[in-house]
Amino acid sequence: MTVDTTTDVREYLGVRPGQSYGGTLIEGPFRGHYRETYVFPLPGRSLRCKVHEPRSELFRFDRRCFLSEDRLLLDLSGRVSRIPEIVVLDEHVLLQGFIEGRTLGRGPAGALSAHHAGQLGQLFAELVALDAGSVGGQRVCARADHPADGDTGAFLDGLATFTRDQVHRRHVDRFGSLFHELGVPEGALDGIRRRARLLTDRPFTLIHGDLHRLNLIVDAAGDLWTIDWELSMVGDPLYDLATHLHLMRYSPQEAGRIAGLWAGAVGAVRPECAKGWREDLATLLAYKRVQSVYTDVIRGAIALEQPGAGSAPARLPVTAHRVREVLSRARVPLGLDPVPSLRGVMAAYARWLHGQSAGVTASAS
Known about the structure:
This protein is α+β, with helices and mostly antiparallel strands. It starts with 5 loop residues before the first helix and ends with a helix. A 5-stranded antiparallel sheet has the order 3-4-5-7-6, sandwiched between helices. Strands 8-10-11 form a 3-stranded antiparallel sheet, with helices on one face. A two-stranded antiparallel ribbon has the order 1-2. The radius of gyration is 21 Å and the shape is globular. Helix 5 packs antiparallel against helix 12 and helix 10 packs across helix 12 (342-364). It is built from 12 helices and 12 strands.
């Protein structure tokens, strides 16, 4: 039997939501942006495992590099500390251990403790020790999307091009009017692509790609674990720092501390990987802020169309507040002057929803 998907894994094990497996009820689904997760005990072991089910109905806002997160984690075992254990049932079936604990997202916000900051620095150091040649796992990205090792400009240009083509242009017929009303200019990523040409070359390394609070787990002993390696890639190591700072929403003082921690940890292992980081960090952060505008504007629109708790008008203020925040953070790279008011964002979404409803009514008549 060949097991290629998470659905196959569940069928192979007889795992069903709401049923008992090994005497314990299967938990889930836990919903993420791209997949649902089911957690269950593994008979004969003091370990709970999890399997993922892709949510194929949703847009993909991020480029994928590795075919299998589980096989990547198996390859990283013993080389990167505090990552999920992979249980090999046979050559086709891998199960990922579930890390018991709480996410940083559920703990106190703000500065990392000295202990957790030190373990985050260890993660950064271990990642830059892994170059493209030392990381196994089948790649799904096209060979044409592999820039030459060290060409950080081409790496960022590739990310910006993906966001432009696969997130914005691919869905412009549906969401273009909303972006226009919010003041997001056409060619918003052109400035980022021009700035990418000025980046300092740095050797490529393994990148986690999604280091935010919900992917950092604190176990019962108080140690920090890193989960959800689905968006890992090989590229500019500074991108991990930029992504982390953008997603964590640190205070300026804490962001500076974590940036210095990254530079020290990386510089101690591969000094060339930290070359030019102070000058280049702003460019990578600008990309992350613009990328978030495209992502959050579309996600907000989709969420308002879905049935859920409360009507769309009742949910609109929460969506508008979040979208206005990402617009404010991207104000400089987008050239937004002024940033739309909260009332203006709400009005833009209300008009967009009305247009969508009118379009459905017209097509049905």
